[in-house]
């Protein structure tokens, strides 16, 4: 998502209070994410174990030749697997995120672009929290019954909703927080730096997700 950001507006009480509250809320979320890192990884790995136990090798292997229609279906399942893995990773955070999204929804800035950017982010959070993925193995077995010529309806609906909830590009919480520098009172001068450090640490802790993703694909495709 690309947003045009004009110059910083005046640091009115409304802008200052909203900026402080936003940074406090996303700092709570990032702090929780770091603290629950072990549970996040376990949740993602549980999805891999579910596939290994329930539908190992359900998708055609890379060595098999496929038609154009089958390739389209297989790509849909790879996308579904990616979305489901991302949702599994953040599942331990759902209650904390839901509470802070509700708090942030009341914030307001006189800078229309910043105000819109924050509320677009919150809309993405809410849409993500509302996603309920179908069982990956059940859907793959349905597709297998059609020789992977058709994408099951529930998979198609989930992919549509997930693409809206999880856009390919969007400003991060740190991007938005940095737009608020001019609004923060001096008492919050270190809050932004603390958030940036937390966000960077969370990103490093999420690095194992790539390995889990590889394990999930291997479990789905088999040898």
Shape: elongated
Major sheet: none
C-alpha termini separation: 38 Å
The average pLDDT score comes to 87
Order of helices and strands, N to C?
HHHHHHHHHH
- E-strand count: 0
Low-confidence stretches: 1-11
Number of helices: 10
Strand content: under 5%
Radius of gyration: 20 Å
How many domains make up the coordinates? 1
Helix content: 55-70%
Alpha-beta classification: mainly alpha
How would you characterize this protein structure?
The chain has one domain. The protein is an all-alpha fold. The chain is elongated and about 60 Å long. It is 68% helix and 0% strand. The N terminus is likely disordered.
Task: Outline the fold blueprint.
Blueprint lengths: L12 H23 L1 H18 L13 H23 L3 H11 L7 H19 L5 H10 L7 H13 L7 H6 L12 H15 L3 H13 L2
Helix pairs in contact: 1-4, 1-9, 2-3, 2-10, 3-7, 3-10, 4-5, 5-7
Task: Give descriptors for this structure.
mainly alpha; 10 helices; 223 residues; 0% strand
Question: In a nutshell, what does this entry contain?
Answer:
This protein has helices spanning 13-35, 37-54, 68-90, 94-104, 112-130, 136-145, 153-165, 173-178, 191-205, 209-221.
